[in-house]
Design brief:
The structure is a single chain. By secondary structure, the chain is mainly β. The protein contains 2 helices and 8 strands.
Length: 139
């Protein structure tokens, strides 16, 4: 089973979702802005998608993410995001992505049937600030 940890950092605050099994999907991609490009260039964006459960135990973190999604202040709009993917409950790390200067493209919360809390979920779509690919780290 795969486990995920998400940490979002700014000078003012750190948001974390580290509770086991709260995140159930993550994707990191490198997207060439112009698909008709003829050579390698700086016109590549790092994109990240994280999906997880809405649960009382991470409600404070989700509220902060929602506030960040609506933030228009340059000093807090761009934040360092670290996504750690663990292979098992013992914590063996499969991959860690550190991406500075990310911003929220989309944030969605979906709620299911009133009698089924497991259907409530969030989806966070992030993009790295343009021309910052050289600052991306993975290990």
């Amino acid at each position: 089973m795969i486990y995920y940890e998400l940490k979002i950092e700014s000078d003012e605050d750190t948001i974390g979702i580290t509770k086991e099994s709260m995140i159930f999907f993550a994707q990191v991609s490198f997207d060439t802005i112009n698909n008709d490009t003829q050579k390698k260039s700086n016109a590549i964006l790092t994109r990240m998608v994280v999906k997880g459960k809405i649960d009382e135990s991470i409600n404070d973190s989700l509220l902060k993410i929602s506030e960040w999604a609506r933030d228009l202040n340059d000093s807090t709009t761009y934040r360092k995001v670290t996504l750690t993917i663990k292979k098992d409950a013992a914590g063996k790390i499969l991959r860690t992505y550190e991406v500075p200067a990310m911003f929220v493209c989309d944030y969605n919360e979906s709620y299911g049937a009133p009698d089924d809390d497991d259907e409530s979920s969030f989806e966070l779509k992030l993009t790295q600030r343009e021309n910052r690919l050289k600052d991306f780290n993975t290990y």
